[in-house]
Structures are given as C-alpha cells and as structure tokens.
C-alpha cells in the first residue's frame, strides 16, 4: 500500500506535465458569432515569434487540419478577452484569439497547439470545443426597438440640420445683395 501513493503522485505529475501551456474553452463567456467558426486563445507571450501549429480535428475522426502562423507579439499578460477601459456606463474590451473558420455547424472538435521557437517545441493541452448549431433566420430574436435616447438624438440632429440649411440660404441671400 505504501508504494501505491508515490506511484499515483508520479502519474499525476506526468499527466499534468504533458502540456507545456494551457488553452481553455470559454463557451459560457464567449461563444462564436457564426456557426462555422471557433475562437481559440493565442499561445502565451513567451512564445512570441515562434512558429505555431494549431491542430483541429472532429471528435470521432483521426485526421485533422493544421493551421500554421507566427505567434504575434504582446505586451504584458494576454487573455482571451481583456478589458482595455471600463467606466460606469460601458466597457471596452480587446479580443486576442485565433479564429478557426470553415467548420461544420453543431460539431465538436479537439483543438491543440504546438509551438516551435528555436530548438524547443512546446505543446498545449487538448481542448474540446463545439460550434453553434445552424438556425433558421425566422427563429432569431433580434430586438430593434427604439429607445428614448435614440429618438431624442434623431430629433436634435434633424433640427440642427434644418437650422444649418436655413442659415446657408440666408448667407447666400445676404451675399447676393452686395
């Protein structure tokens, strides 16, 4: 029984050490805008300039597709979604992700990175991600109601344009008299 504990600890450490860095799926926080694409977090900053290979394959298949690109530079910590500015009324965010396109709607994929920088190669964990199912346009609920603020701004802009046109006509009339 005493040999079982170090063996389990070694297996856990080997399992955790299998990936040099982690990527994650944020399906609850960030979902794809289209049914044919996924957003995957970029590799970490210490791999800037490295040659990245993103592998994607369907869950029930053995072959996949590889996307190659150079890891972009970053300053400071790079999150999938980072807050650039926040006030009481609105928040500006920046998206740092790689978009995998031309996928089948409503399908699960495994996504993982391998990044070669110099003589070293680092691997990410494998993440399962699912594209959105395709829906009919009639079932989408798009709220296009006018708010009070939109109506006030429209009225103010219309009045300002009317006054501008009247002022232009008056200026032309006074300029023609001289």
Helix and strand topology:
Elements: H1 4-16, E1 38-41, E2 51-58, E3 65-70, E4 81-86, E5 91-95, E6 97-100, E7 108-117, E8 120-123, E9 127-130, H2 148-177
Protein name: LOW QUALITY PROTEIN: uroplakin-2
InterPro entries: Uroplakin-2
Keywords: Membrane, Signal, Transmembrane, Transmembrane helix
What does this molecule look like?
This protein has 2 domains: 3-135, Immunoglobulins (Immunoglobulin-like, Sandwich), CATH 2.60.40.10; 139-176. 24% of the residues lie in helices and 29% in strands. The protein has helices at 4-16, 148-177, and strands at residues 38-41, 51-58, 65-70, 81-86, 91-95, 97-100, 108-117, 120-123, 127-130. Strands 2, 3, 7, 8 and 9 form a 5-stranded antiparallel beta sheet that branches. Strand 2 (51-58) and strand 3 (65-70) form a beta hairpin. The model is unreliable at 1-17 and 26-33 (pLDDT under 50).
